[in-house]
């Protein structure tokens, strides 16, 4: 009886000292803040072991996997979070981002649409969905999303850059020139934007001299594909 009682007391002490679900979550979030993704996952796994329906822990674990570029592994974790709580936009958005990284553009658009329907105020959805639509070569829809993103903040160089790419795909070189010019004005180190500017000036508008300036800038910034254009068309 005494041995059983001692064992019972020890069990009680261990149980009393076990961190709570909330404490484990906070520890995991702290590790996320420190970008210690592996340790963060270990804490979230302990939360999930205590409560398999803890959607916040599932989503957070998926984010930690995503940050390690384990996109394929992150997707089923986000799916589990969605199964637990399909009304939260975050796991839909995060799963869409993982699919975007894997170039599963169609599935990404489906998830972005769900996230957008659940919380239209989350403006990051517009730009990311625009990228997925660009990948699907659905240029007009992509342009709508890029314009929505620019309404929120017009000083986003990457949004202007990708809008320019969509405009080129949509056979609008003049519009693309404007967007690409905005992109390089906001970010003078965007070599790809200079390259597209140069190619568009030369091929669509016949502006050889100006195009060569842009192409040389692209090459100076490390965009080696510009070299063949420069060798063929520029002095």
What does the secondary structure layout of this molecule look like, with pairings?
Blueprint: H1 2-17, H2 21-33, H3 37-50, H4 55-67, H5 71-84, H6 89-101, H7 105-118, H8 124-135, H9 139-152, H10 157-169, H11 173-186, H12 191-204, H13 208-220, H14 226-233
Helix pairs in contact: 2-3, 3-4, 4-5, 4-6, 5-6, 6-7, 6-8, 7-8, 8-9, 8-10, 9-10, 10-11, 11-12, 12-13, 13-14
Could you please describe the fold and organization of this structure?
With 235 residues, this protein is an all-alpha fold. The chain has a domain at 32-122: Tetratricopeptide repeat domain (Serine Threonine Protein Phosphatase 5, Tetratricopeptide repeat, Alpha Horseshoe). Helices cover 79% and strands 0% of the residues. The chain has helices at 2-17, 21-33, 37-50, 55-67, 71-84, 89-101, 105-118, 124-135, 139-152, 157-169, 173-186, 191-204, 208-220, 226-233. The longest helix is centred in the N-terminal third of the chain and has 16 residues, at 2-17. The termini are far apart. InterPro entries: TPR-like_helical_dom_sf, TPR_rpt, Ycf3.
